[in-house]
Amino acid sequence: MNDTNKKVTLLIYRGDQNGALEKFETEVSEGMVVLDALLQIQMKDAPDLAFRYNCHGGRCTSCIAEINGKTALMCKTRLKNLPLDEPVVVKPVGHFPVIKDLVPDITRILKIKKPEPEQF
Predict the structure, then answer these.
(1) Shortest CA distance to 65 belongs to which of 51, 78, 55?
(2) Superfamily of domain covering 7-104
(3) 101-110 own/partner pairs: CB under 8 Å, 24+ apart
(4) Per-residue pLDDT tens for 43-102?
(5) Cβ burial, residue 50 (10 Å; 0-12/13-18/19+)
(6) Cα(66)–Cα(69) distance, rounded to whole angstroms?
(7) What's the CA dihedral at 19, 26, 28, 12 to 10 degrees?
(8) pLDDT in tens, 11-28
(9) pTM of the entire predicted model
(10) Domain ranges in the chain?
C-alpha cells in the first residue's frame, strides 16, 4: 500500500451488551494493523473507546476481536490485507459478554481455583 493519504472506514462496536456499530475514519500508513487504527481513533476522535491490548506483538492475545466476521488479533491483522474499499467491521469476540465497546468479560475463564499451599 503506497497511498500515504489513504483512509479507512471502521465500523466499531460501541456500548455494552446492547451496543451498536459506530462509524470512524482514519488515515492508513504502511504496515498498519487494526490496533494502530483503533489507537489513532482513540487519540483523535473517541478518547473513551475501550479495547484491550498489552504486547502489540501477538503474544498476549488480549486484543482478540471479531474483524470482518472472523476472530483475529487486532495487533496482527494488517489493514493492507483487508478490503479497504468497504468498512472494516470490528466487534468484540462473540462468545463473551461485553463490558464496554471491544472489551469482553473474560472473568469466567479467569476463575481458576488456586491450589492450597502445601503444609510442611
Answers:
(1) 51
(2) Beta-grasp domain (3.10.20.30)
(3) 101/12, 101/13, 101/14, 101/15, 101/19, 101/49, 101/50, 101/51, 102/12, 102/13, 102/38, 102/49, 102/50, 102/51, 102/52, 102/65, 103/50, 103/51, 103/52, 104/64
(4) 999 999 999 998 877 778 889 999 999 999 999 999 999 999 999 999 999 888 999 999
(5) middle
(6) 6
(7) 0
(8) 999 999 899 999 999 999
(9) 0.84
(10) 7-104
DSSP E strand boundaries for 52-120: 64-67, 70-73, 88-91, 98-100, 103-104
The DSSP call for residue 94 is T
If one counts every other C-beta atom within 10 angstroms of the C-beta of residue 10, the result is 21
CB 109 within 8 A of CB 84: no
Distance in angstroms (rounded) separating the CA atoms of residues 17 and 116? 36
**Phi, psi of 35, rounded to the nearest 5 degrees:** -60, -40
Distance (Å, whole) CA 90 – CA 76: 14
Q: Evaluate whether 119 touches 29 at the Cβ level (below 8 Å).
A: no
